[in-house]
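Following up on my earlier message about magnesium ion. Here are the inputs again, as you asked, copied directly from the submission form:
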Amino acid sequence: MELKKEFDLETIVTSEFPDVLLEQARSFMELMMQYRCALMEVETKLNVLNAEFTMKNNRNPFESIKSRIKSPQSIIEKMQRKGYEMSVKGIEENLADVAGIRVICSFPDDIYVTAKMLTNQDDIRVLEVKDYIVNPKPNGYRSLHLILEIPIFLSNEKKDMKVEVQFRTIAMDFWASLEHKLKYKKNIENAEDISRELRKCAEASSMLDLRMQALRDRIEASRE
Ligand code: GTP
Ligand code: MG
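Thanks, got it. Here's what our run produced:
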């Protein structure tokens, strides 16, 4: 991973940059670096679980793992929208999704098995669980959201960082990606009808998830 440029303040500020802003820019970048470290920690844990699960079960539970740091623009937009104090401390205290990981699983039950394995680890603290699989959002959105706290070890401190982990199946991700792309507004013509159709699509893809999982079980049972 190329880290140098991203954390090199000289590449973003000029000599006439005011000291007070420079100090804030420095602590903002330091916080972002710490969130990146927290992402690395959680990603490593997921990679370890993937390796062990794959060896024991002869298939990998994760289709893909994607992580991202929230962009400065999105951070500012959310802080303003929620009316939080605009400061580096305010970001750290109020936002739980600056560091985000999306884990795409093969089958619905892999989500719960692997999420449990992760949250059972003794250096991870679960701050919040939102199960939109058992309780889908009204629009049909499904995923398991966890807000975790994980320590990172810096040169002279140990610091707990928040990370949002979203677990979904390929089918849930397919629906969420397209729904996001549609960016559909509630005040358009036939809005009710479109909402209903979106929800039906989510239900259809959820049925497909369960049928594929049942198929996997039948194939595994016939192998034994
Ligand atoms: P914010 O974190 O302030 O956005 O609100 P929240 O904490 O209530 O959010 P929630 O945990 O419900 O969802 C956070 C993230 O889940 C979003 O940033 C999206 O990535 C994803 N998400 C939630 N709802 C939807 C949805 O209806 N459609 C899609 N495509 N993604 C969603
Ligand atoms: Mg949230």
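One observation from looking it over: Residues 67 and 181 are 19 Å apart (CA to CA). Hope that helps, and feel free to reply on this thread.
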